[in-house]
Amino acid sequence: MTYIYKLSSGTNARIAGISLAFSALFASPADAQQAPPDSGLTDIIVTAEKREENLQSVPISVTAMTGESLTATGISNVEDLQFFAPGVSITNDAMAIINIRGIGTTAFGIATDPSTTVHYDGVYIPRPTTSYQDLFDVERIEILRGPQGVLFGRNSAAGTLNIISKMPTKALSGAIGLTLGNYAKRALSGTIAGPVGDRIGMSVTVLANSRDGIYRDVARNRRYQDQGNLAGRVTLAFNPTDDLEIVLRADASQDRETGSTSKLTSYASGGLAAAGATVPRGAFDIALDADPRYDVDAWGVSSTITWNNGPVTLKSITALRKSNVSEAFDTDATDLFLRHQEYFERSRSITQELQLVSNGEGALQWILGAFYLNEKGSDELRIIQPNRRRFTPETNTTNAVAVFGQANYAVTDRLRLIGGLRYSWEERDFSYRILVNNAQIGGGQPKDSWGAWTPKFGIDYDITKDIMLYAAATRGFKSGGFQLGDGQPFLPEYIWSYEAGLKSTVLDKRLRANFSAFYYNFTNLQVVEYINGVATTTNAGKARIKGFEAEILARPAPRLTLNSTLAWLDARYDVYFSQGADLSGNRLPNAPKWNVTYGAEYKAPLGEVGSLTLRADFSWRDRVYFKANNNPAFEGETVTLLNARAAWRPIDERWEIALYGRNLTNERYPTYKTAGVGATGVTNQTVIKTLYGEPQQYGVQLRHFF
Q1: Distance, CA of 692 to CA of 91 (rounded, Å)
Q2: Residues 6+ apart with CB under 8 A from 278
Q3: How many CA atoms lie within 13 A of 577 on its CB side?
Q4: DSSP reduced 3-state for 64
Q5: Mean pLDDT of 240-250
Q6: Which end of the chain is more exposed for a tag (fewer CB within 10 A), N or C?
Q7: Where does residue 166 fall: left (phi above 0), alpha (psi -120 to 50 degrees), or beta otherwise?
């Protein structure tokens, strides 16, 4: 069990229990040794509402996974989460496009924000271009679905992805891991943690990950969609007094890759083959005339100071983050020089969050908070064609201020009322220039600000000590901005979310079943379309989303654990006109109607030899539209994926040797489709560019623990 430096002995015991409690969610190999084989499911402790609570007592929709369960299910990056969490869809198209319950955005640029926020150790990550990272040194991940604002510094209309790294341990400990796989996969990781003083703990983690490219360029003998990542994190935690904890963190990552590669469905469309484009024959063959590039440097430092002053706890989270992005695309996806694109982005953000949380077991529990963000950035989109070069350099400064709070009042031992309120104010100071062949043809310095009050009302009721009902109405807000490429403004979007759910742990803690149903009413939903390489963001008049989700975890036999999720989603525009077309009634992009997952894990004791843990995961996702007009040419087919892992550990559990396989059936599935470029160099709706998911991958993993 991992010891985490905390404020007092009582708090230490509760926090140390997080590791064991979360572990039961997927019963990873290490966890099964600790729990008696005939025990039921262990309570899961989360901090989704800024205080330690049993997951079954938190009246919101949240999925939580430990670092060990990420390894057991084959999740190595943010994109993989979509196949194991209900209502989540993630695409890697030069950035992490995260959709939760049908809400997300493909817009990027320094004057727009994602609909789903990402937090690392409580720190907001402002740029989606830096959110797609390898997951390493992870204690747990929490995926919160629905608008988040009354408890989080940075508000979110769709939901929040919380990634929490591991803390230093009380005794010296560590791990070394090596992964070898097909496509020359090589990953080496190492962690060491322990005390460096009487009240000081420290941990250091490094990761090096590389893989050859999946696609072969038949014209230039090169490979694309490779992996090349170096990352590290240092954490220093110390307790000057029993009531004061200070945690300092520093992290850095470097990606040097070719990025995800798009492939044309047909080279006959748009006159490409007739114009002399090489037609690749194999599924993973491609022909380009320029090297794609995905270079990302990101680093940050933060301090989290927690002071337990008896009746209340005061927490301060201060952070500085910087990133530098350089990307290049062969937009036409052929070996003809028709259109190339380059994108450069720099960002520097400073965030400060304060939380004041009530302690004790009284009828009234509350939290108050304040948040400040200052982000300064610059970017430049370059569209390069044979006789035309269009450059759009931009700068932007975003200032965001918010105050928020929530109170829970226990009317009786079983009935609780919830009320929350947030005020958000944001301002963008933007400037841009449009240059064509080095001559300026446009530009401007628009500036705008937006503010919104977003309340929350809720109620939850314990039918029994193991079954809880809850319902909530929440308003969400996402500010307006200015679109990349031409500086045009778009309006803020607003959402009213209505949700009801049931959480239960029954059959002597051998079955955990959670259900939720929701209805969203959107106003001014931000919608993105790409026209000749320029992202155009408009506002749909209205959209409504309704759905149902279920998460099941069961232990029918002492060493067997089963899990399953189900999501049904109906996401449609109520009022939306785009380019003269009425799209009312169309389904939202990246919003599959059905999503189902199944998982099974069995731990077989081998006596003095140790133990063997076998795990298999199955996921099925319904077809999706990638465009708001629901054009069948830009539709993604259903996806069925199968992953498996077999891990052996000796009786002392100091080693683990595992065989893994991902996408074992080698499913060929699209994760995104968009219009390509015809032989004239102009966007052609009959030319379909497809971004595909990862093919079959397998290998061996070796880990040593000390």
Answers
A1: 10
A2: 218, 219, 287, 334, 335
A3: 1
A4: strand
A5: 96
A6: C
A7: beta
Structure confidence at residue 91 (pLDDT):
74
Task: Supply the pTM of this predicted model.
Answer: 0.89
DSSP 165: E
Mean of pLDDT over the chain:
89
Mean pLDDT of the 493-518 span: 95
Could you give the angle at the alpha carbon of 664 between the alpha carbons of 622 and 621, nearest 5°? 10
Residue at token pair 């939850």: 460
What is the Cα–Cα distance from 401 to 351, expressed in whole angstroms? 10
**Residue 343: both structure tokens together:** 């994108």
70 or 145: which carries more pLDDT confidence?
145
Neighbours of 158 (CB within 10 A): 28
Quick check: 49 pLDDT over 90?
A: no
Q: How many CA atoms lie within 13 A of 610 on its CB side?
A: 15
State whether the Cα torsion 406-471-81-634 is positive or negative: negative
What's the sign of the alpha-carbon dihedral 43, 145, 114, 77?
positive
DSSP E strands: which ranges in 335-363?
A: 340-358
Q: Give the separation between CA 502 and CA 519, rounded to whole angstroms.
A: 16
d(CA 494, CA 253): 34
Q: Who's near 203: CB < 8 A, 6+ residues apart?
A: 137, 166, 167, 168, 169, 191, 192, 193, 194, 233, 234, 235
How far is residue 100 CA from its own chain's centroid? 10
Rounded to whole angstroms, the maximal C-alpha distance in the chain is 77
**Predicted pLDDT at 579:** 79
